[in-house]
Amino acid sequence: MHRRRYLASLSASSMAAIAGCSSQRTDGPETAGPPRLTVEGRWVTDPDGNPVVLRGVSLADPVWSLEHAEKPEEEYWETFRLATDDDAGWHARVLRLPIEPNSISEAGMDAVVDALDRAVELAAERGVYLLVDYHASKRYDTSSIDRRLRSFWDRVAPRYADDTHVLYELFGAPTEPAAGGREAWRTWRDRARPWLSVVRDHAPDTPIVVGSPAWSSLTAYAAAEPFDHDGLLYSAHVYPSWEPRSWEATFGTPALEVPVFVTEWGYTGAEAAGSVTHLIGTAERWGEPFREWVDTHENVHWCAATFDTRRQPAMFDADWTLPDGDDNMGALVKAWLTDRRDDHRPGQETPLPSDEGSPPTPPESVRIVRVQETRATVRWERPQDPDGAVLQYRVTLDDREPTILRGSKRVVELSDLAPDQDYEVRVTAVDERGLESDPASARFSTLALSSPEAAIPRTPSAPSIGAEVDDAWTLAEPNAVDTLLWTDRRLEITATWRALWDENALYVLVDTDDPEGGTDVFAELYLDLDNSREEAYDGENDLQLGIHRGDEYMWQGYHSAPVTGVAEVATTETDRSWRVAFVVPWTEYDVRPIVGSRLGLDVHIGVRDGSERIAKVSWFDESDEAWENPQAFATVELGE
What we know:
The chain is α/β, with parallel strands linked by helices. Helix content is about 20%, strand content about 30%.
C-alpha cells in the first residue's frame, strides 16, 4: 500500500467507524510466521524446546510515522522491510511496534488496527516476530488508563491471538506511583493483574511482556514477586541514565530466574538528544559495555530504539544514512545483530541449558585493603573451581541487602559505615545458572572518628560576592592560608578562605591582601566531595579548581573530575585585595549533603612572575601533593 493511499484510508477511518468491524479477523496472514514461543522458567523456547532469544529493533508508531513522515516518498513499510533485510546487513528477528495513545485518539482504533493488520502480515512474510506495544508513559493508577488499556486490549488481543509470531507488551512505560521500591512493585502488580487477565482471556497462548513503574525500571523485583500468570516476560528500559554498575543488580539478577526483555535501550550525542539528558551517551563508555553485559546473560532479549530518523535516540540521519562516530548507536546495533544472527533462532537444535550441578566454590582471598572512618574497600579473587562462568558476585555487610557486582569486578567500596565499629563482610559467587556459592568472609573495624579541621555552616540563602562581605558570609569564620609550601623570595601577600553550604551547592570565598598591590596571584580550591580519601583522584567528585587574578574563566587541574560549565566562579578587585568565590553544585557530582557530612578541602594561593611560579602557600597541605593526592586535603564537616 502506498503512503498516499494509506493516509487516505487513515483519514476515512478517523471520520467514521467501519460498519460491522469486528475484533476478530476472518483471515490471517497469507504466509505463516515463525512458530509460537513458550516461556519455560527463565527461558523462551520454540515448539521443540529449543531456547530462543529475540534480538531486534523498535520502530516508530506506524500511525504517527505516516502522518509525520519527512519525505512523501519514504514509506513506513520500506523501513519495516529494511530492519529485516539480511542482504542489507540488518538481521532483526523481532520488531517492536509501539502504538501511542495519541494515535488512537487522533486517528481512531480502526486506523490503528489497519496498521497492525499490515504489520502482522508483513512480519509473517519477513519471518520475524512482532511485539505489539501499548506505548503509554503515564500514571497507572487512574480510571482513565484503566479504561483505555481495557479498550485497547479488548480490541487487539483477540485479533492476533492465533498469529504465532505476535507477542504483546501490556503497557510500555508506566510511571507513577514508583516510590518505595518493592512496595511500588506490589502496587503495580495488583493494579496490572486484571489487565493481564483481559489479554490472557482473549489470547491464551500469546507471550506477554510486562513492564513496571518508573518507566519499566523496577525489573529487579520481578523474580522475587512475579505475577501469577503464565507465559510472561518482564521488560526493562535501559538508557545512559542507568550507569553500567547498576545493570547487574537491577536487570541481571532477575534474569537468573525469569525471562527479561530489554524492550528499549539506546543512546545518542548531546546535540541530537537536546534537553533529553537521560539519552546522552557514547558507544565507548555506554554502548559497548551494554552489549558486553547483555551477552553475559544468554536469556536476555532486546530491541534497540529507535529504527527511525526522528524519534530519539534515532539510528539514522534524515536521509536514512547510518552515521559514524562514537555518539551514534546505529552501527553498533547493526554489528551486534549481525554477530548474533544465527544464535538462539527458532528451529535451531540447541540443548536447553541445565540449572543442575554444583554451585561455584567460594571466592578466594577476601580481604580488606583500605579502612577509613565510614568506608572500607573489599577485594577478592575469583573461585579456583567455579564449575561454570561466574556471572556476578554478591557482597553482604552484616544484615544489609547485598551489593551485586558483575563477574568481571572483584573490588567494592563499602560506605555509610559507623566509625569505630566492628563489621563482617561476606562475598559469594553466582554462576550463569543462578547457583550461588558458600560465602567467604572477612572482619574489620572502622577507624574512630577524628575531629574535622573546620566546620562549614549552612546558609539560608545563597551568598553573593562584592567589594564587602555580605551578611551571609559573616556566618563563616575565615581560615588563614599561611602554610608555606615553597618560595624563592619574601612574600608580603596574605590570604584567608571561608565557606558556606545549602542543599544546592558549596560556596567557598577566598580573600587575598597584597600590601604592594598588583601581585600576579592565583587561587586553587581542592575538593574531595564524598571524602573518599583515595590516593589518586577518582574522576568523579575529586576536584582541583583554579583561577588567575585578572582572568574571568576557571581552569581545572590535570587529575580533576570535569568542571567546565558546572562549577561557577566570580571575582572582585580592589586596590590591594582580590576576592574569588567558587560555587560547586552537589547534584552534578552525585552528592547529597546533610548536616554532619564530611568532605576533603584545601585552598592554595600561588604567586607568579610572568609565566613562572615563584611561591605557594596552603591552608592544610604541607607536602604540596594535593594536585595528585586527595589524602593531602583536610577533612571538614557540614554544620548547622
